[in-house]
């Protein structure tokens, strides 16, 4: 049986919808992981010990166990304790928290790299510790770590394929559904890969724009 | 002038372990006075200045701003509220400017007034324009710090401090990090402040400036005020041998 890519266009609509879901879940999880990463970083650096210690355990769990398992736990496991999340929401939470923990590590390093003079400049004007963090330190820390966070976001896009296993009809699951109808795995996996590649190009272009925009303000 | 001093430092002492950096220093500054603190590096002059707004807390002794004790012993939360309101009245200018690089000149100036004084955006903008006019940098209002020269950065830092309408201004070697040709523009702004009778305490290595602008000069060495007096006395006829030695070394290159 030879390769025949002419079967793909008939499923272009389904693949397109799948791609849209992939973009939606990636962007939602990226936003969650970004702001979650900031909050986690501030907790890890400044929260009192009673909050920091359980947080460490939580961070360790997210870093030390497979993302696939985390998705299963959030989607199938939480139902048992009465939390029944739609697959999309479970996927965003799983991906978002997982990458928030990784972003938190990077943002912590960024916060620690902010010059001591910045705190002094803000505090001598009368800003409180919290105001100084919010308005002076964190914005600078985040700007300085945009490139490594961007790398995480590209990894997030690729790992979003995992949410196909909890039934979100994103790009990977859409191509699998097309395969089960046509028995053409090669053609549809290549088509899906091409779609991921194009989305990735868009994401990278977006990240480059952000980097250029903040270049001056550093 | 027999008024109550605006800044009153009583028996200030500070030590790191067995190293005493400030030894029982008392200093009163009257409203409108301009005081220069000079001395070799490691003499404690910056530490003393930074004790005034409790940036470097004293080990013992008291600092008063008018009738408020700055370094009051309070539980952490109350201290936080207390010190933040005290610091709004004490402007500080640093050697390395400490402008916020992610904010424009305008935002650098308006950040604190907007957050702490609850003024509107229009009022804040007006304030920025007014302060930048004062330091001659109105045309740079929407620049980022990275687009300014060192002298311009320091003038913005002064404008930022002034925007809080402080009662006292502290200058911690404001021109030490500048290229020689940029020192003058910052000195001019400080002179202008002096003419407006701003109370200023200036830690400096610039003897010429101290001589021209200040009412009083303190010479510090090894954590004590060795000698103090009007500039014409300190610079022309210093009594103490340590002052004489310091000035001889320092003035050599300048004349």
Q: What count of helical segments of chain A does DSSP give? A: 9
Q: For this entry, what is the oligomeric state of its chains?
A: heterodimer
Radius of gyration of chain A: 21 Å
Unreliable sequence segments of chain B: none
Number-wise, the strands of chain B total 10
**Count of the separate structural domains of chain A:** 1
CATH level-4 homologous superfamily of chain A: MetI-like
| Helix and strand sequence of chain A | HHHHHHHHH
How are the strands of the largest sheet of chain B arranged?
6-7-8-3-9-10
Number of strands of chain A: 0
Indicate the structural class of chain B: alpha/beta
Q: Please tell me the CATH architecture of chain A by its name.
A: Orthogonal Bundle
Question: What is the arithmetic mean of pLDDT of chain A?
Answer: 94
Largest interface summary: A-B, 23 and 30 residues
**Structural class of the helices, strands and pairings of chain A?**
mainly alpha
Question: What order do the helices and strands of chain B follow?
Answer: EEEHEEHEHHHEHEHEEHH
Largest sheet properties of chain A:
none
The largest sheet of chain B is: 6 strands, mixed
Terminal CA distance of chain A reads 58 Å
Uncertain runs of chain A with pLDDT below 50, 5 residues or more?
Answer: none
Distance between the termini of chain B: 35 Å
Structural commentary:
- The complex is a heterodimer of chains A (218) and B (255).
- Chain A has one domain: MetI-like fold, CATH 1.10.3720.10.
- In chain A, 78% of the residues lie in helices and 0% in strands.
- Chain A has 9 helices and no strands.
- In chain A, α4 runs antiparallel to α7.
- The N and C termini of chain A lie far apart (58 Å).
- Chain B is of the alpha/beta class and 255 residues long.
- Chain B is built from 9 helices and 10 strands.
- The longest helix of chain B is centred in the last third of the chain and has 16 residues.
- Chain B is globular, with a radius of gyration of 18 Å.
- The two termini of chain B are 35 Å apart.
- At the A-B interface, α5 and α6 of A face α2, β6, α3 and α5 of B.
